[in-house]
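User:
Note these tokens:
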Amino acid sequence: MKRKFLVFIPIIILAILVIASGLYLFLRPDKEQDIILRIGYQPSTHHIAHIIAMEKGWWKERLKNYGIVDVKEYLFPTGPPEMSAMLAGEIDVAYVGVTPPITAIYEGLEAKIIASVQLNGSDLVARSGFSYTGPQSLKEARIATFPPGSIQDTILKKWLNQNRIDFHKDVKIYPMGPGEAVSALKAVAIDAAFLPHPSPTIIELEGFGKSVEQSGKMWKNGHICCVLLISERFMEKYPDIAEEILKIHYESTQYAKTHINEASEIYSEKMGIDLNIIKKSFESWDGELISNPYLAINSTIDFATAIYELNRGRYEHPLNQIQLFNLSIWDKITSNND
């Protein structure tokens, strides 16, 4: 009997080890789990901070110490489908124009802006042969811009209204992504397009259109354009990772500003757009790369109010700063540098 029992001892020990390892894998702290970070962005120079961090390997290298085993990026043509993906839980972080998150938060998205990405940076471009003499000359024009809910759509419609042009009756607005809008303008299927860079420069250098208005002047006193958005669930579960993400974003933004030629080369190679176009785009746009979220607050609140006014009856009240921003991560990072 004793000998039979001794035979089963190794089996019992092995079973205990298997159970213990399984319990460890199930109960181990979040920071030791294998985490895949999912980042959404768009094919615009506005999001060059992400592109630099991705292509230089900074996301993976810096975040691997926090349990990140892979960083996957997802390219979206515009902000609204990017926010649909975040609402569906398909991405954790988004480089995105500020108005799609506002609309998505109105609709129930639990996410917060933690940093700015850039200011201004979109142009209204009229096709060759179209006589643009000011906003009034757009009456009966066909205009392409990003879909409803996007920052381009919001700016364009408010600007038209301010210039006594009814965007429902006096013009035809077609929702398009950047590639589709550029092609439509080239084919004379539309008269104008309101697009983020580098699309306006592509149109000008290829000779079938000209920039006639810049978004910083269309929206009084300029505006925040893109922001860095993180899901609240991700921030709550991985606060240290969220902090490191913001640090990387800040450093990548600074790198792009101080190494603009290299940044242009990285963008050109990744997106397959001629380098001269990207360099010219940075020279001619009215944009500015930034990361301080406090610089985004005022115009973000203005956008939230404008979206509320465009959707009266759908939303109970305009969103406020607390509902839109988490400034604590930026405050922590900057206080540590003081």
